[in-house]
Amino acid sequence: MAAIEFTAYPRRHEGRGASRRLRRAGKAPGIVYGAGEPTPIELDHNALVHALKSEAFHASILSMRLDGATQRVLLRDVQMHPFRHEILHVDFQRVDERRRIHMKVPLHFVNEAVSPAVKLGGAIISHIANELDVTCLPKDLPEFIEVDLSTIEAGKSVHVSELRLPAGVTAVTHGKDPVIATAIVPKAHAETEEAAETAAAPAAAPAAEKKEEKKEEKKK
Prior knowledge:
Low-confidence stretches: none
Oligomer: single chain
Number of helices: 5
């Protein structure tokens, strides 16, 4: 996948007052740091809002055009206004191709409908996590990680250790093995199944008795 491109401009003035003036002019203040001196920047607010709607913009290496040059960066932080749909500040980090990066990568769940948990057990699969902390070299960063639910059974869970990670990518779990998804049987469904089994038991008993009687008659 080609890197997502966006344009930034040098920010000439800093401080709260300057930032407020930028926002009133339809711009969003930001900064680029890492691998050199921090660089204050400004971006078109509406274009940035549109870009932030894309999952890939949050989890991919981006191509930023600034002052006639292109830099590879990662989105690191977005500060939003408490109640207005307004970006207060955005942070980007320059990418060093030789150093491992730490990122949150989206999880994409597949084959849920064909799993034994759903088809046979009447379960509902709950997604406990929607992203995964990983570390890797920039060249190995995946756009997303697929979670195959085709074999999950009712009452069971999928853990991080069961994921098939791309080559060069390592999950960051701090010694734990977190649950990614779990198949839960709704209480109402479980009660219906139990009632059906209970109702079937008395009906099965006379049938078994008749079978035994026929065996006895044949012996005579």
